[in-house]
Write a structure and sequence with these properties.
single chain; transmembrane helix; phosphatidylinositol-4-phosphate phosphatase activity; SAC1 phosphatase
Length: 173
């Protein structure tokens, strides 16, 4: 009322159009910030607008994408932020780049083997063989192959994570 937006006696709760515009602006702002920070839209923005089943599904999808990006593809982003903010200083004497790390064969082979084995297990379940013993043998083989590669990946989990490679100044001092 002091700013002249509302008349004397008017309440903000009575202005449905303004409330809708205001909430949508905040939800759009949350999406923009979340895309910069996490790589996906904000979670639960449909609470601000109107909660729907589709919003719940999109929150689950965005959470899965965030989990993947955070663990397997965001190390470079943190390196860029550290370099930009001056948390890492480039050593002019050192010729080798600290960003280039040689990856072992397992980083590509094991996830591919796991996906192929899991897919074959599902295909064997859906396309049953002539006898149930034949189907069971195939499912057990491909299931154990997918479980085995998953166990190896879990055991070597820290090697698969895309961690930042630059060291912060405070840690070097």
């Amino acid at each position: 009322q002091r700013l002249g937006v509302l008349h004397v006696g008017q309440r903000i709760e009575e202005q449905a159009d303004f409330e809708k515009i205001y909430k949508n602006a905040w939800a759009d702002n949350a999406n923009a910030c979340a895309k910069q920070y996490a790589g996906t839209g904000a979670l639960k923005t449909d609470y601000t607008r109107q909660r729907t089943q589709w919003g719940l599904i999109m929150d689950g999808w965005n959470s899965l994408i965030r989990y993947y990006k955070n663990n397997f593809s965001d190390g470079f982003r943190q390196d860029a932020i550290d370099l930009f903010l001056g948390n890492y200083s480039v050593d002019e004497v050192e010729s080798a780049s600290p960003l280039h790390v040689k990856k072992d064969w397992k980083f590509l082979a094991l996830p591919i083997i796991m996906v192929v084995a899991f897919s074959m297990c599902i295909i064997c379940l859906l396309m049953a063989g002539d006898t149930w013993t034949e189907t069971l043998a195939y499912v057990l083989f491909w299931g154990s192959a997918s479980f085995g590669t998953f166990a190896i990946i879990l055991y070597n989990g820290k090697d698969f994570v895309d961690a930042p490679k630059l060291v912060q100044k405070e840690k070097m001092d």
